[in-house]
Design a protein that fits this description.
mainly beta; 3-stranded antiparallel β-sheet; 1 helix
Length: 60
């Protein structure tokens, strides 16, 4: 997993696998979208965005 900051925002990404705490990320996000994770024909990609020092990403 990699992360980078842009101003007060932090972007978190993982390519190929979901983070081990993905369910927690999704449960604590203000908005979480999943696109057919069980029947994926392609490759999994996780993307999360959080503002400032908020503990959990608000967008997953």
């Amino acid at each position: 997993m990699i992360s980078t900051s842009v101003g007060e925002w932090e972007i978190i990404a993982a390519d190929g696998d979901l983070p081990l705490i993905y369910k927690d990320y999704a449960a604590n996000a203000d908005y979480a979208e999943e696109i057919d994770l069980r029947n994926s024909e392609g490759r999994l990609f996780f993307f999360g965005v959080r503002r400032g020092n908020r503990g959990w990403p608000s967008l997953v």
